[in-house]
Write a structure and sequence with these properties.
The protein is α+β, with helices and mostly antiparallel strands and about 425 residues long. Helices cover about 35% and strands about 20% of the residues. The chain is elongated, with a radius of gyration of 24 Å. Bound molecules: zinc ion.
Length: about 425
């Protein structure tokens, strides 16, 4: 058995090989919507990489592509991975980095002839982006959260999710066989590009994710009175758009002044939306995100109060309909500490931050201790062909992933067995 220090020194990521893997996947086109021929091609290219590494490969019932490297002991596997499907005209690194880096970690261990205690499992999740059928299909199925109704959802061609899953080798009739119970996975790690500009702005090459933000969606209907814009004097108006403007400012201020982390009015519809009619009705959406559920709920209550106050001033009625609350998912404290120890062991600067975007890791967090590692996205750009992460940041992220896997596998895996 090789001691950890010796292994950490002798096992390291080959940055050139990592870029080759990223290039090989990215060269298959920037639009790889899940279950399309481009996605199928990318999946077979990754399957081939898994086979070349001697991994035991499988496609589970929902179409997740899984490669396993046996461990020395019969323990639950340490899993890691990400996705290779994209949005329309997506970038080269979103998802792909986590998959390419996971493969490179396994290649490094093979090259060093090192066998971990735990089996190691790389997972390429099916349909993360959800351009069709909704997001996080593969990881949701793994925790038993993909419903029979989900399987009947159709894309623009009329194809159901169940039919699409068969195209990538899944078996929708046996969908429950993809479920992993709590305890069946010792830990889950995902390396991903940040998709924001925080790391770049603080000058840290590694982000230690504290949790994945929860999201609240609320629809607000403002009812004023439509009337002639020339004959209705200012004091007698009930202008729904003027009230909406005040409310939009209140939403922004709520986040700026320590409410939830981000708050956005992303959609606004004005009726009748005519040049010479006072707006009688406005429909708008409020999206709130934070890793703390209570902050989301407090901000919701605060904004209802703001609505009441604006209503008193303007005579415009406010009606709130809360549409959805997706719970935040905290990252495991032990896994975060293992990532931090890896960074400190390597002398790498890190910054702790929440994830504003959703990831497969948030589903895995419900059944296993979960952690995420971020690397900078140049200019904070993602979901775009302009997406870029520097070669050295990709390699550093992969190295931190590898060292964290080794730490979790060895002395810092308290309770992971
Ligand atoms: Zn992604």
């Amino acid at each position: 058995m090789k001691p950890l220090r010796q292994v950490s020194q002798s096992v390291s990521i080959d940055s050139g090989q990592l870029q080759c893997r990223i290039d090989a996947i990215a060269s298959l086109g920037g639009t790889r919507l899940a279950y399309t021929p481009a996605d199928v091609e990318a999946r077979s290219s990754v399957l081939e990489m898994m086979r070349q590494l001697g991994l035991k490969t499988a496609v589970d019932a929902v179409g997740n592509l899984i490669g396993c490297r046996p461990g020395r002991l019969s323990l639950a596997p340490i899993a890691f991975g990400s996705h290779i499907d994209t949005v329309r005209s997506g970038g080269r690194y979103d998802g792909v980095l986590g998959v390419a880096a996971g493969l490179e970690c396994l290649a490094s261990l093979a090259a060093a002839d090192y066998v971990s205690r735990h089996p190691l499992e790389i997972i390429v999740f099916a349909n993360e982006e959800g351009q069709n059928f909704g997001a996080l299909c593969g990881s949701r199925a793994m925790i038993g959260a993909l419903s029979p109704e989900d399987l009947l959802r159709v894309d623009e061609t009329g194809r159901t999710l169940a039919e699409a899953i068969k195209v990538v080798g899944g078996n929708p009739r046996q969908i429950n066989s993809a479920i992993r119970q709590p305890g069946e996975m010792a830990a889950f790690l995902e390396l991903h590009i940040e998709q924001g500009a925080v790391l770049e702005s603080v000058g840290a090459p590694i982000g230690v994710v504290e949790g994945i933000s929860g999201i609240s969606y609320t629809e607000v209907k403002l009812s004023g009175m439509a009337n002639h814009s020339g004959t209705t004097v200012m004091d007698l108006r009930k202008d729904a758009l003027v009230a909406a403007a005040q409310f939009v400012m209140a939403v922004q201020e709520a986040a700026r002044q320590g409410g939830c982390r981000v708050a956005t009015v992303g959609r606004l519809a004005v009726h009748p939306n005519s040049v010479n009619i006072i707006p009688g009705e406005v429909l708008l959406t409020v999206e709130l995100r934070d890793v703390d559920r209570n902050k989301i709920l407090e901000t919701r209550r605060y904004l209802r109060d703001c609505g009441r106050q604006i209503s008193e001033r303007t005579g415009v009625g406010f009606e709130f309909t809360e549409r959805e609350l997706i719970d935040p998912v905290p990252c495991s404290a032990e896994v975060q500490q293992a990532i931090i120890n890896s960074c400190e062991g390597m002398g790498v600067r890190y910054h702790r931050l929440p994830s504003g975007a959703g990831h497969d890791a948030q589903m895995m967090g419900k059944i296993a201790p979960m952690g995420m590692i971020f690397v900078p996205s140049a200019g904070g750009v993602s979901h775009s062909p302009e997406e870029f992460t520097a070669r050295e940041h990709c390699a550093l992220g992969a190295e931190v992933l590898l060292q964290t896997i080794l730490r979790l596998d060895r002395d810092e895996g308290r309770g992971l067995e």
